[in-house]
């Protein structure tokens, strides 16, 4: 047991020294942060759904925070809803990605959620 404890202790000390060296030299500041969607809501008037559904869309965001390309990741099963989700994703505003302190372009995956509209005629009849 003593024969394996010494190499493990040496490895542990080496890992700790490397970690402190990385912190001291600020190597960890080059961590990638992906772009983020700025929270906002859009109402889609062109698409109606019968039950709640979510479409997953990937968007390439440039250095200025503008969406430049989109891609469908998970479909709702309805081509009209999917097309509307792609249009909505390109209308959103984004915070650009960073790599350390540099602003870079990057991909972000966002859920675009759809909910059924309440039937106004049915609500009027029940009141």
Low-confidence stretches: none
CATH level-1 class of the largest domain: Alpha Beta
| Classification by helices and strands | alpha+beta
What would the average pLDDT be, to the nearest integer? 77
Amino-to-carboxy terminus distance? 80 Å
What is the CATH-assigned architecture of the largest domain? 2-Layer Sandwich
Number of domains: 2
Widest sheet: strand ordering: 1-6-7
Tally of helical runs? 3
Number of strands: 8
Order of helices and strands: HEEEEHEEEEH
The percentage helix is 25-40%
Shape: elongated
Main sheet: strands, sense, barrel = 3 strands, antiparallel
CA radius of gyration is 24 Å
Write the layout of secondary structure elements.
Elements lengths: L1 H23 L7 E2 L2 E2 L15 E9 L5 E8 L4 H13 L2 E2 L1 E3 L2 E3 L1 E9 L5 H7 L1
Antiparallel strand pairs: 1-6, 2-5, 3-4, 3-8, 6-7
Would you kindly provide a written description of the structure presented here, covering whatever features stand out?
With 127 residues, this protein is α+β, with helices and mostly antiparallel strands. It folds into 2 domains: 30 residues; 85 residues, Fusion Protein Consisting Of Minor Coat Protein, Glycine Rich Linker, Tola, And A His Tag, Chain: A, Domain 2. Helices cover 34% and strands 30% of the residues. The strands form 3 sheets. A 3-stranded antiparallel beta sheet has the order 1-6-7, with no helix packed on it. Strands 4-3-8 form a 3-stranded antiparallel beta sheet, covered by helices on one side. The termini are far apart.
């Amino acid at each position: 047991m003593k024969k394996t404890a010494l190499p493990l202790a040496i490895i542990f000390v080496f890992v700790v020294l490397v970690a402190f060296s990385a912190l001291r030299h600020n190597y960890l500041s080059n961590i990638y942060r992906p772009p983020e969607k700025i929270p906002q809501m859009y109402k889609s008037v062109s698409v109606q759904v019968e039950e709640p559904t979510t479409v997953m869309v990937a968007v390439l965001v440039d250095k200025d925070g503008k969406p430049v390309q989109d891609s469908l990741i998970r479909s709702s099963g309805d081509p009209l809803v999917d097309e509307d989700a792609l249009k909505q994703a390109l209308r959103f505003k984004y915070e650009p990605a960073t790599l350390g302190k540099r602003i870079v372009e990057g991909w972000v995956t966002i859920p675009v959620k759809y909910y059924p509209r309440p039937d106004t005629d049915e609500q009027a009849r029940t009141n």
